[in-house]
Design goal:
This protein is mostly helical. 70% of the residues lie in helices and 2% in strands.
Length: 490
């Protein structure tokens, strides 16, 4: 299908035809220059799309294998530069971070005071803001810990406790919404499940974090301290101390990627995405630190608020890196989405009907004859479609009770295939709701009669036939009966 192969970037397509550029042919004018630049960008992205997904990426040649590997960073960078949604969500999470960082640390203080370990949170906060420079990180860490300590002393028995929990739950919900957006999850957690899991995370998370830090310090001061006289082991200890913040960040990212999205995330994509995000975190942090230390304009312009501006910028970069790693994890688990990315997918009614019938045919054939069950990725590769198209129609058929998705994200028939009628499959495909309110019904007798005859024609064509009949059909290809009936109607 040509519409799925071209894959132009929607934002660039809109920019290529700005409202004020209609009828402008001379590129020396300002609208003409804007249109020319947009067309150049559009050609550039089309060139990259053809290079990464064209014939050169097929086969077992080392160059083709390298191109297929490079698809993943290309897709993430493309989404960051052209989509806009990831950047907007990172900006929104900066705002929610400002609202929740004090309540979050205060809540952790209240939990960890029972273990006498509440002061162990200070190095964690410092590590997060360390790219701002030693002085800036120390200053903002001192202020955050001071405010959090004051808040935590008055938590119990106060109305502020309820407001604090509400703020934290709202913040985690926004994080979950962002992850669900990247993972194309349309159904969020229920309210009861959300409250239970979020509160468990808020209570267990600080304990696990401090426990991890305590075990790390015990390991460095315990067995390794016995061999401090050996130069090699002393170097190993120094290396472990230097790497411990990045290991902590990677472990935290892995946990977020696996448990925050309301879907099953495999450990391998989550770990690869977390390691990549951790490396980016370290690299961007070093660059940001150098920029903050060497830049004097920030202090001149913002004076005493310079460290606050730097904190906002670093928080934005941190969320952007976290979301980019989540996007990479999604592509690793769902490579069929690599080409279409975040673009909105629109299939015609005929394409949706064909996809529903083909999906049910393949699932029914495997169920009857045996073999490996179909997943979204395998179906997308088999049918030559983006995984989003398969996932959408699969979700629609699942809601109708025609399919069941197993714990392994595999499709099986919702009931015996001899009891699934083809008329029911087509009916489900033809009556997907857009989510908007229905237009006002206006009676137009000639159109209504024609629509009724067309509907009756395809129903007569499929009358009495089941999915088992379709699977067992081995007849030679012939002109569809439905087309014959429609031609008679016309």
């Amino acid at each position: 299908m040509r519409c799925l192969k071209a894959l132009p970037v929607p934002a660039l397509r809109a920019a290529a035809h700005p409202p004020g550029a209609r009828g402008v042919s001379h590129i020396g004018t300002r609208p003409g220059l804007r249109r020319y630049d947009a067309l150049m960008w559009l050609r550039f992205w089309r060139f990259l799309d053809g290079w990464f997904f064209g014939p050169g990426s097929l086969g077992t040649h080392p160059t083709a294998v390298l191109v297929r590997v490079l698809r993943y960073p290309y897709a993430v960078i493309r989404d960051l530069l052209t989509g806009g949604d990831i950047n907007l969500r990172a900006m929104g999470l900066v705002y929610t971070t400002l609202l929740s960082i004090i309540p979050l640390i205060a809540f952790a203080f209240a939990i960890l005071k029972g273990f006498g370990a509440h002061r162990d949170l200070e190095p964690v906060v410092y590590e997060f803001f360390r790219p701002m420079g030693s002085e800036g990180a120390a200053e903002i860490t001192r202020r955050i810990m001071h405010f959090a300590d004051r808040v935590s002393t008055g938590l119990v028995g106060s109305v502020g406790f309820a407001l604090l929990v509400w703020t934290l739950l709202g913040t985690i919900k926004k994080v979950e919404d962002s992850f669900n957006f990247l993972w194309r999850v349309e159904q969020p957690r229920s309210f009861a499940r959300r409250v239970a899991e979020y509160l468990s995370l808020l209570i267990i998370g600080p304990i696990l974090l401090v426990g991890f830090l305590g075990l790390s310090h015990a390991a460095l001061r315990g067995p390794l301290s016995l061999f401090t006289g050996l130069p090699f082991l002393q170097q190993v200890k120094t290396l472990l101390i230097a790497l411990s913040p990045y290991v902590m960040v990677t472990a935290m990212f892995t946990a977020l990627y696996m448990f925050v999205p309301n879907t099953r995330v495999q450990y391998r994509p989550a770990i690869i995405g977390a390691v990549t995000a951790g490396v980016l975190w370290a690299a961007v942090g070093k660059i940001f630190t150098t920029m903050v230390v060497l830049s004097t304009r920030l202090t001149i312009v913002y004076a005493g608020f310079a460290f606050i501006v730097a904190a906002l910028l670093w928080t934005y970069f941190g969320w952007l890196i976290l979301l980019a790693g989540a996007q990479l994890s999604f592509y690793l688990q769902n490579p069929s989405y690599l080409r279409i990315g975040l673009q909105e997918l629109r299939l015609s009614c005929a394409e949706i009907e064909q996809l529903a019938l083909r999906l049910m045919y393949l699932v029914g054939r495997t169920h009857m004859n045996g073999g490996t069950r179909w997943t979204v990725n395998r179906l997308a590769a088999e049918l030559g479609l983006p995984g989003r198209a398969v996932a959408q129609i699969g979700g629609t058929l699942e809601k109708a009770g025609l399919l069941i998705v197993t714990e392994g994200d595999e499709f099986v028939p919702g009931r015996d295939i001899s009891r699934i009628t083809l008329e029911e499959i087509v009916e489900v495909a033809r009556n997907q709701r857009s989510g908007h309110f229905a237009a006002k019904g206006v009676e137009i007798p000639p159109v209504d009669r024609l629509s009724a005859r067309l509907s009756q024609a395809w129903r007569d064509c499929l009358a009495g036939r089941t999915l088992r009949d379709l699977v067992e059909d081995t007849a030679e290809p012939a002109r569809p009966k439905l087309a014959t009936e429609i031609s008679r109607v016309r």
